[in-house]
């Protein structure tokens, strides 16, 4: 079974090369041009990505996220969101890797079968790394004006967080 999966990519590359040769396309030149274009996209994406990851590391190291989580706890309780997930709510729109770290901490602390752990897991699957996605994809497409994209995406994240807490309460009653 694994031999079949290991052969999928080489077979696909061979088929593409054969198709290109049948159409009299210089396959090697096309690959080189594609790689060159990819490096140009990478050069536009990396600077905002580095800035974003640096900002997230600074927020986590400074304790600012924990302070915001304590401040937001009463509001979160009012909406039925476990306040222990507040660091995840703050980090998830910014960085997926930081959110994975925070989510792992939550699950390690409260357990994977706890309401808090389940809510954190559903939140991870129900939301997007908004600022990372906008930085990467808008940067790749060379879009400078995001106008309504960020507010709309943040609203979608909020809906995802609320829905995750609600779904966890409905499907896994305590």
Tell me the total number of β-strands.
0
Q: State the distance separating the first and last CA atoms.
A: 41 Å
- Derived from helix and strand composition plus strand pairing, the structural class reads mainly alpha
- Strand % is under 5%
The number of domains is 1
Outline the low-pLDDT stretches: none
Shape: elongated
Largest sheet, strands/sense/barrel: none
Rg from C-alpha positions?
Answer: 22 Å
Run of helices and strands: HHHHHHHH
Average of the residue pLDDT scores? 87
User: Helicity, in percent?
Assistant: over 70%
Walk me through the structure:
The protein has 174 residues and is mainly α. The chain has one domain (43-171). The protein has helices spanning 2-22, 27-62, 64-78, 86-91, 96-110, 115-126, 130-140, 149-171. The protein is built from 8 helices and no strands. It is elongated. Helix 2 (27-62) runs antiparallel to helix 7, helix 5 runs antiparallel to helix 6 and helix 6 runs antiparallel to helix 8 (149-171).
């Amino acid at each position: 079974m694994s031999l079949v999966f290991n052969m999928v990519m080489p077979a696909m590359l061979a088929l593409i090369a054969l198709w290109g040769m049948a159409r009299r396309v210089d396959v090697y030149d096309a690959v080189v041009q594609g790689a060159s274009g990819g490096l140009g996209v990478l050069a536009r994406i990396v600077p905002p990505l580095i800035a974003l990851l640096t900002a997230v590391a600074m927020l986590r190291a400074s304790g600012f996220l924990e302070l915001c989580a304590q401040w937001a706890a009463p509001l979160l309780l009012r909406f039925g969101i476990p306040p222990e997930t507040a660091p995840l709510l703050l980090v998830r729109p910014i960085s997926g890797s930081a959110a994975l770290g925070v989510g792992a901490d939550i699950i390690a602390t409260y357990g994977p079968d706890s309401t808090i752990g389940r809510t954190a897991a559903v939140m991870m699957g129900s939301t997007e790394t908004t600022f990372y996605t906008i930085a990467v994809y808008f940067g790749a497409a060379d879009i400078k004006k995001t106008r309504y994209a960020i507010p709309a995406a943040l609203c979608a994240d909020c809906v995802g967080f609320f829905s995750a807490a609600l779904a966890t309460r409905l499907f896994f009653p305590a």
